[in-house]
Description:
The complex is a heterodimer. Chain A is α+β, with helices and mostly antiparallel strands. In chain A, 23% of the residues lie in helices and 34% in strands. By secondary structure, chain B is of the alpha+beta class. Chain B folds into six domains: 1-160, 2Fe-2S iron-sulphur cluster binding domain, sarcosine oxidase, alpha subunit, N-terminal domain (Ubiquitin-like (UB roll), Roll); 167-294 and 421-480, FAD/NAD(P)-binding domain, CATH 3.50.50; 298-417, FAD/NAD(P)-binding domain, CATH 3.50.50; 513-577, Orthogonal Bundle (Arc Repressor Mutant, subunit A); 664-752, 2-Layer Sandwich (Alpha-Beta Plaits), CATH 3.30.70; 894-994, Elongation Factor Tu (Ef-tu), domain 3 (Beta Barrel), CATH 2.40.30.110. In chain B, the strands form 13 sheets. In chain B, strands 8, 9, 12, 13, 14, 15 and 28 form a seven-stranded mixed sheet that branches. In chain B, a hairpin with a 6-residue loop joins strand 5 (75-78) and strand 6. The longest helix of chain B has 18 residues, at 463-480. Classes of the chains: A alpha+beta, B alpha+beta. At the A-B interface, strand 2, strand 6 and helix 5 of A face strand 8, strand 31 and strand 39 of B. Chain B: Residues 610-879 form the GCVT N-terminal domain.
Amino acid sequence: MADRLNHGFAASSNPGVIVSIRNDLGYATIMVRRGADEQLKQRVKTAYGIDLVPGPRRSASGDVAFLGIGPTTWLATQDDGGNGFSVSLKQAVGDAASVTDQTDGYVIHRVSGPRIGQALAKGFPIDLHNRAFAPGAVAVTAVSHLGAIIWRLDDLEDGTPVFEIAVFRSLVDSFRRWLDDSLAGFGLARN
Amino acid sequence: MSDISAPQPNRIDGGLIDRSRALRFHFDGKQYQGFQGDTLASALLASGVRIVGRSFKYHRPRGIMTAGAEEPNALVELRTGARREPNTRATTIELFDGLEALSQNRWPTLRYDLGAVNSLLSSLFVAGFYYKTFMWPASFWERVYEPLIRRAAGLGRASLQPDPDQYEKAYAFCDVLVIGGGPGGLAAALAAGRAGARVIIADDDFIPGGRLNNDVHTIDGLSGVEWAKYTAKELDALPNVTMMTRTTIFGAYDGSTFGALERVSDHLPVPPAHQPRQRLWKIVAQRSILAAGAIERPIVFGGNDRPGIMLASAVRTYLNRYGVAPGKAATLFTSCDDGWRTALDLARAGVKVEAIIDARSEISPSLVASGQTIGARLLKGAHVIDTRGAHGLSQIRVRTNKGDDIAIESDLLAVSGGWNPNLALSTHLGGRPRWSEERSAFLPGDLPRNLVVIGAASGALTLAEALKQGTAAGATSADAAGFKSGARPEFVVDDESISGEPLWQAAASRSKAFVDYQNDVTQADIALAAREGFTSVEHLKRYTTLGMATDQGKMAAVIGHAMMAALTDRPMPQVGTTIARPPATPVAIGAFAGRHRGQDFRPVRLAPSHRWAEQLGATFVDAGPWRRAQWFARPGEADWLSTVIREVKTVRSAVGVCDVSTLGKIDVQGADAGIFLDRIYINTFSTLPVGKVRYGLMLREDGIAMDDGTCARFAPDHYVMSTTTANAAKVMQHLDHARQVLWPELDVQAISVTEQWAQFSIAGPRARDLLDRLLGGAIDISDAAFPYLACADFCWRGRPARLFRVSFSGELGYELAVPARFGDETIRAIMEAGAGYGLTPYGTEALGVMRIEKGHVAGNELNGTTTAHDLGLGRMMGKKDFIGKVLARRPGLVDPDRPAVIGLKPIDRRQRLRNGAHLFSPGAAVKLENDQGYVTSSAFSPMLGHWIALALLARGRERVGQILRVVDPLRGADFEAEICSPVFYDPEGARLRG
């Protein structure tokens, strides 16, 4: 993947933006079955200790997180989960929800750094400022004419914001061309 | 820099320029010099350049008229080669070292322009001359007149080369947007910023301060320049305030959204690496404050376009900001007190003021006294009626209040007819300006939601008013956005007198008196429009071109409208004024495109096997948003057709593989998934056994076919639907609409998994052999265990996988799906496993040929006009209810005369059938009424050895065996073809099974 994602400029030693790809994540969409909202809540709480909240929020515990991406729809992620995550998730929620593996459907980038807000403003048509998009916020939106899901993790200790961005796998080259262009002026490092 | 020696005869002391940084530049090939902080206009004026361009229609010599974006005359071609940019305003171009500019609209030179002969022919070029002069003879229009006009039309020349620079787009959000960085805007930003609101203040200049930098003012004991500097510094230090200089807010749009252009690198010779030339901002503001100031009004008089005639405020700007005296002997022509400031500033700068001509007969004694102290001759109630001078102004003719004509020798005439609020942005959403008798100006009328107008833009012309209104608007806007503003500072400023009487046009003259300089619209043109009945301001604009082109009538429009009011004896409110559309100032198309050009014109979706196909040297084709392999040429193949023929023959005789991941895949789950699909498709899916696949067709609500594909059942509550590549997104929306809006009572969930799975079609007589070898017993694929239309999920190489026994080619076929991350690995494994069986990869072209040979319909037939019956799929319709069933029974959709899909074979087998050819009965005349249908898909059939086609033909199915005439006038074909079944190859379908 690395050579495919690199076009144009060298990594910077004093980067304004740091980019990494979350190859380790397993993820799946989860949609409530009709009338099973309470059941699903309980099963998620029991299995993962997570309170499933409606709306565009990320709730996490341990290595699992649930991101609200639509009415009664979440994207669930598990560190190092792989394709197996959807299987264990289905076992956990049973007939309270439909589970669909998306581990291969998206490529997820983690982006951070002091200049990240300015870089993302070149493509995301939404307000990513602290006051509008605090840690835990999720948005299903677009970036530079391609569909994207973006969420904000907890800030680093020095207050630097951290975002993760999911785009369809087939679009990752186009996304990377946009990302590289947009942060070229700020200096880039890859983790 | 050592060779800088060009003189700057008009440079004087003072100004906000850095004299330690001399800059060299070229205008029309001649070298000049200026300083850091100059504009091209100020540097040209400093160097004594008076003529900077020729007018559009009459090619009259023109000079710099203004010091801002409203400049109508000083339009130049900036830079050279691929970076050449026509029609840039010299008054807004920041000087940089090595700048090169050329004047426009002149030949052979600016000083001696042959086009000036148009002035002698001016009776031909009056308003509406297109419609009058070039009417007769009619035959001359295309051959003579139009080419002539086209050659004369347009200003400046585009470079015609690709722009080497980058452009960028960005989004910004704020509580308060302040448009304009003059005194009012700075005060507003300060009040809102101190309250803690997120503030963006945008100013098109490169130093904030607006008129504080151009005029002599004091605020709280500081000079206006210093106050602006300190205020900007405080704003800069506030983390919640963003100060954007060199940024023009050019448009107001719905939803409190504004368009802005940031000229990131326009002031540099070449943008540094990774820095765009310009950045287009979309700014969403909760509240906005329009503080765009005002534009001075000239006065219309004979010879008012001679170089050396300038707006009075522009003269002050050149004196105070740029340290340039644009003349040696100056005269002022004004009808308001504000103009007098120019006379005083000129005198203070050491320029001789010959005369002050004030059209008013009553002038305040203090002004008269100030005029006396500078020794200027005062002419009250007088008008300038004409000017003289070969290459710029040398003499002014004045009609005194006694009716005498006198001459005054001057090389600079400063003109002030009052001020027009710069209110364009307030009209972008339809707001009409309203006339104020008190201010003698149009003021902003109905405003966009959450926008307030302050200062000169609102007609409040004094500095004190601007600061007070700015502070109030900033504080109120912050409060409205949920912040708490503190005490509002009160500013102590110097007193200003702003009284005046509008003077639209001076006493009549035999010389041309220009209203719109850029379009050469004269007083006489306005009068002609009035005589001919074009009295509405919109008709006036179209008939005379008043207010068109790059300046959009910023100076001219209101004067023209006032003149029309006088000519038609109507009050100004009744005449009204035109409203503006975005952009308020010109914006390059490149800025709107941003980085979306060339390879990045739009996002491209790459299939999982893309890298592998690239390495194999495949030829690609864009199919909707996807880039797919079209064919895989091998060395020695003469052309694409021989490649495709080889691919088809290999699939039909051995085995082939094709990436079909681009087809839409939708996961449908839930207890009611089967019932749901029964309502979506015309045929039944609730009865489909687990482990089976069925072909389905879905209709739109109106009964027309929408999409087709297969749907597989993996569990009682789990189906996977496939759609065509082109309709994948549309079908997903259709399903979401159906389950969320039409039948929320059904327990069904649907989500796209197109991207999750890499899917490969493996087809041909050796397909099972290949799979046996590839899968190594991970699943039993014997015909008994896995017959035609079976499906299964299984584990392969420790990963989930799916297998479907389906076929688009008509051969024994399978589709193998693996998680997309492993698509590249899997296609390579397939190639390896197939090597011993003669495997070929094939692309979309061979896929298309084989589906035509099999008579399968695709996008060309599912074209939004065809019914299930037209497609030959009418018998699939079940008795149950489904979307489109009712409207599919409309008389028009069950008419037996409707076209149906049939096959065509040319009688002369050498003839080539092509898409779009029309069908006629033999002997019928080739005309629309006799049209019987058309070819939808065509291909050379490698199996039949000639061209074949699918066509939509009226009553087609009952005409099999008849002969038709195929007419293709576009490509010159006219031959006979035989109507046949659309299934050309293996009509029994024996090859699929077994």
